[in-house]
Write a structure and sequence with these properties.
Layout (H helix, E strand, L loop, with lengths): L10 H11 L4 H37 L1
C-alpha cells in the first residue's frame, strides 16, 4: 500500500531533482532517492555504532 504525502523543499533542490530525473515520474524518482538516502543513513549510523563500540572495547582492553 502506498501513502500520499506532501513536502516542501527549496526551489534549488526542486530544480536539481527535475533536471536529474529526466523522463522518470517525479514521485518514482523521489521515492528512489529516499530509499537510497535511508540505506546510506543506516550504513553510516551502523558505522558510527561500530566505531564507538570498538573505541570502548579498545579502552577496556588497555586498562
Amino acid at each position: 500500500m502506498k501513502h500520499n504525502i506532501s513536502i516542501t523543499m527549496e526551489q534549488t533542490l526542486f530544480r536539481e531533482i527535475e533536471n536529474t530525473r529526466g523522463r522518470e515520474k517525479r514521485s518514482t524518482f523521489i521515492e528512489h532517492l529516499i530509499i537510497q538516502g535511508l540505506k546510506n543513513y543506516k550504513t553510516s549510523q551502523n558505522n558510527i555504532t561500530q566505531t564507538s563500540t570498538a573505541k570502548i572495547t579498545n579502552k577496556t582492553a588497555i586498562h
